[in-house]
Amino acid sequence: MVDQSEDRSTVLAHDDVPLPVPALRWEEPPEGPVLVLLDQTRLPAEEVELVCTDVPVLVEAIRSLAVRGAPLLGLAGAYGVALAAARGYDVTDAAEQLAHARPTAANLAHGVRRAERAFRAAVDGGAGYEEAAAVTLAEARALHREDAEASERMAGHGLALLGELLPGGGHRVLTHCNTGTLVSGGGGTAFGVVRAVHRAGELRRLWVDETRPLLQGARLTAYEAAREGMAYTLLTDSAAGSLFAAGEVDAVLVGADRIAADGSVANKVGTYPLAVLARYHHVPFVVVAPLTTVDLTTADGGSIELEQRPGHEVTEFAAPSAPGAGAEAGSGIPVAPLGAQAYNPAFDVTPAELITAIVTERGVVSPVTGDALAELCVAAPPPSGEPLPGDGR
Question: Is the pLDDT of residue 1 over 50?
Fold first, then answer.
């Protein structure tokens, strides 16, 4: 639960605002700049915004999953550094807090460090604090634009790839977790491809895993699919195998929180068993992620730090419509015996050999190998000229 006891954040209801509410935006009211987040813990029951006026509030929003999703975390990190600079806080301390708020998502640290480098370069170049803060905000906004553009390119590449893999059309796609506009400055990653397929008239059915922990597929992906008018069906994660066995899945599309140098992919827990099922049933398994998710400094999947979530998220049921519901143990409805231990990893790792293709804004990697991934990363400089994580520049 975000601490509001010192008026460092405010919750705003927007019943009269045209939908959709953006997942993240920068505002400059008379009291000073703020970062406004769509509180994703309150969806789908309510569309409520959380206004962050300092970095500790933003860090708590990241940890509580009020703001989430790999690309969006990168934007939140960059804007968080800009917020610290604009309000005169210690930028170095702010960057450290933000970069370590969640360990698995590569984009978070990438966004933080990119904004921090922009701030330091401005200061080292003789800029005053106010000018350096403006430069930092401009860098965050540039990253925001690039992410939106990357979403469009990934959607195009993914649509073309599915056309090649499944030339008959009428695709039945299974997706896991949430990868749409709620995780991005644009249309998203895997869900962005699904949207392109839908708008091309080629989506027969979207199968939506409810996705543990915190039911992000049920609460968020179904919410986005309904808004798009897609034909979708929600299923429990454990029911996916029966769909494959019945021949009801043509392709699996998922996002990623970190891609290691060998092509291994960390994504929401439950992704790995889907890849195993897809391989057994000869169904394409496609990962869609921007190159900011690639971390060439992480050698392989075993080297990825996987976030562990609190056990009470499994042993208790929390209604997402209540502010802060489930944030603390004992605040939800018990569904397991008192004292039950719970294994609750947020992510698992899928090895490269189980992945049909990785779709990025620069193209498709298939077959997925470390060499092919590295070649794509260094093929051309990023739009901003900033180094990708681990490319050695």
Answer: no
Q: Which of 257, 262, 295, 348 is catalytic?
A: 257
**CB-neighbour burial class of residue 81 (10 A; exposed 0-12, middle 13-18, buried 19+):** buried
Q: Would residue 257 show up in a list of annotated catalytic residues for this protein? A: yes
Judge whether 323 and 4 are in contact, CB under 8 Å.
no
DSSP codes of every residue in 53-109: -SHHHHHHHHHTTSS-SHHHHHHHHHHHHHHHHHTT--HHHHHHHHHTSSSS-HHHH
- Burial tier of 387 (Cβ tally within 10 Å: 0-12, 13-18, 19+): middle
Say how far apart CA 145 and CA 67 lie, in whole Å.
Answer: 18
Per-residue pLDDT tens digits for 376-393:
998 755 544 444 444 433
pLDDT tens, 322-333? 444 446 777 789
- Residue by residue, DSSP assigns 161-182 as HHHHH-TT--EEEEE-S--SGG
Bridge-based pairing of strands 258-260 and 294-295 is parallel
CA 188 to chain centre: 8
Q: What is the DSSP string of 339-393?
A: T-----BSEEEE-GGG-SEEEETTEEE-S--HHHHHHHHHSS--TTSPPPTTS--
What's the pLDDT tens digit per position in 43-83?
999 999 999 999 999 999 999 999 999 999 999 999 999 99
